[in-house]
Design brief:
The protein is mainly alpha-helical. It is about 65% helix and about 5% strand. The protein is built from 23 helices and six strands. Helix 10 packs antiparallel against helix 11 and helix 16 packs across helix 20. The protein starts with a helix and ends with a strand.
Length: about 550
């Protein structure tokens, strides 16, 4: 038995199987709490399936069953619809995630408005990312158990990662592709140092780049910074090594290979989604360029905010200054040790992702839209968290080597590891707060069960309706969208409520008194209006005659 567990190959695969099992269980635990209350998540379903029929909210003063809502969010017809999706997204997002979501919806969840249409693909991306990181750390440390601990601590109980996996958007997919991009970039660079062309890396770089360019426009920024940093550093080393004959070096040959890969990737992106050219020149690209040329105090406040979110993603409510000192102190310490020990490979593996992620964060925060939302820096925060975990390993491994008394080596390192890991896990536990800290997991003020308990009575949406609460409406038996203008059509639609003693009203808090007056007039009776629950921007009221 002892020999069995001493076999690194067997131990590596046993620990990998355990990691995947824990990852799946962890994902299912949080996914089971998932509710849809954020507009962008509703827009995911609208973008992939909404082209099949008219948006129900546009159909005013007409009573409809919940099947009408479900049908709008679900795939009902056999038309693939990828061209229609691209047309819908022309001024918004690149389409790969939406194409995949349409495929899953059409072939596995037809006629269903299930959150698992997106969660199932998120689980796949999450497991691919976990696997990639585990085997990378196995290669770096040659210690499967160390890799298991590093990935488990970094990826299983990390609030920022849980945000990305449970949101019904493309963020975990983008994180996976960024991790692949960095891994390939570092592999290409290290192959160049041996004077060779990284054929495998360059071949794989093209589909990864293409997938990323078609996943999110923010990937374009990360890709540009990754290519710039790695290729510029390679060019400097090529000139330093061969001077005027730098073009003969492996560095330069791989730069050319990267340029060819980029040309293929961007060309394929334009062919598959030509609207990206318009978007970059006229919409998002132009807005970002205009923003870059505009310098103001708010820009630097956004950058400060970005670093505060970084500190929060590590240490919860710990003061940002203290958190940042710890984070960058550990990162700097690991870089110093790598330089001191002349471990060039380790130094490059650590420093390049750190530099690229920090530059990305600064660039995104500097060009931030009006709203400060942490999702814009989720990916860079996660990569920096992984670099932090790698840095801790480097520091502990260095201390381990300094201890001369072999008898105390394992004891000291085990105690040090425990002292470091426990506060990190505890900080994440506090930040997650039983799911309340996971921004898009559920809306704390909403009682979904209360909505389901009243599904058998009519529901009325009074006044302008944003997309945030749209997923609630699948719980209704019948629903009607009314204006708040007391027009003739509103009065006609309200007559349907004469046949019931109770109904629900979705309304803004400021408009509920107006709604009460209108329905008392329309139904010619006194009403009792009782607050039931919140629903994002709306409140929900139980109305009794």
């Amino acid at each position: 038995m002892k020999r069995f567990f001493e076999n690194n190959i067997i131990v590596k695969w046993i620990l990998y199987a355990m990691l995947i099992l824990l990852s799946v269980l962890n994902f299912l635990h949080w996914a089971n709490m998932k509710e849809v209350y954020y507009a962008d998540e509703v827009y995911t379903y609208e973008s992939v399936n909404g082209f099949e029929q008219e948006w129900p909210r546009a159909i005013l003063d007409e009573w409809m069953g919940s099947d009408r809502i479900v049908s709008y969010l679900a795939a009902d017809v056999d038309t693939p619809g990828y061209v229609q999706i691209s047309t819908v997204l022309y001024g918004d997002h690149v389409p790969l995630f939406f194409w995949m979501t349409r495929f899953i919806s059409l072939h596995f969840f037809k006629h269903q408005a299930s959150i698992w249409i997106c969660l199932s693909s998120n689980l796949v991306f999450y497991l691919i990312l976990i696997s990639l990181l585990y085997f990378i750390f196995c290669k770096i440390s040659s210690k499967p158990f160390v890799s298991f601990v590093v990935v488990a601590v970094s990826m299983l109980y990390n609030r920022t990662v849980l945000e990305q996996t449970t949101m019904l958007r493309m963020y975990i997919m983008m994180l996976m592709l960024i991790a692949m991009l960095l891994a390939l970039g570092l592999y290409i660079f290290q192959t160049a140092e041996k004077g060779k062309i990284a054929w495998i890396g360059l071949i794989l770089l093209t589909p990864v780049s293409l997938a990323g360019l078609l996943t999110h426009y923010d990937f374009w920024i990360y890709y540009a910074l990754t290519a710039f940093c790695i290729c510029l550093y390679s060019l400097i080393l090529a000139i330093k090594k061969e001077k005027k004959k730098f073009y003969k070096t492996g560095y330069f040959k791989n730069i050319i290979g990267w340029c060819i890969s980029f040309a293929i990737s961007i060309g394929a992106t334009i062919i598959l989604f030509p609207y990206c050219v318009w978007n970059l020149h006229k919409d998002k690209g132009w807005a970002a360029l205009t923003s870059v040329s505009s310098i103001s105090n708010s820009k630097f406040e956004n950058i400060v905010w970005g670093f505060k979110t970084l500190a929060k993603s590590f240490f919860s409510s710990t003061p940002a200054v203290i958190g940042l000192i710890i984070v960058f102190g550990v990162l700097a310490g690991a870089i110093y040790i790598s330089a001191k020990t002349k471990n060039r490979k380790q130094l490059i593996n650590l420093s390049l992702p750190i530099v690229i992620s920090i530059l990305y964060q600064i660039a995104v925060c500097f060009t931030l839209p009006a709203a400060r939302e942490e999702r814009y820096v989720w990916c860079s925060n996660t990569i920096l968290y992984l670099c932090f975990a790698y840095s801790l390993y480097i520091i502990l491994d260095y201390i381990y080597g300094l201890l001369k008394d072999k008898k105390y080596q394992k004891l000291v390192i085990s105690c040090a590891s425990f002292v470091i890991i426990l506060p990190l896990v505890f900080a994440q536990y506090c930040e997650i707060n039983h799911g309340k800290g996971i921004t898009y997991l559920f809306f704390e003020g909403k009682d979904t069960q209360a909505l389901k308990d009243h599904s058998d009575i009519p529901w009325v949406v009074y006044g302008p309706c944003e997309a945030h609460s749209f997923f609630d409406f699948v719980y209704s038996n019948e629903i009607c969208f009314m204006t708040n203008t007391a027009c003739e059509a509103d009065y006609i639609a309200a007559e349907h409520l004469n046949d019931t003693d109770t109904f629900l009203i979705y309304a803004y808090e400021s408009q509920v008194s107006d709604a009460e007056v209108f329905f008392e007039d329309a139904l010619n009776t006194d009403l009792t209006v009782t607050y039931l629950t919140a629903s994002t921007n709306f409140n929900v009221y139980l109305v009794s005659k």
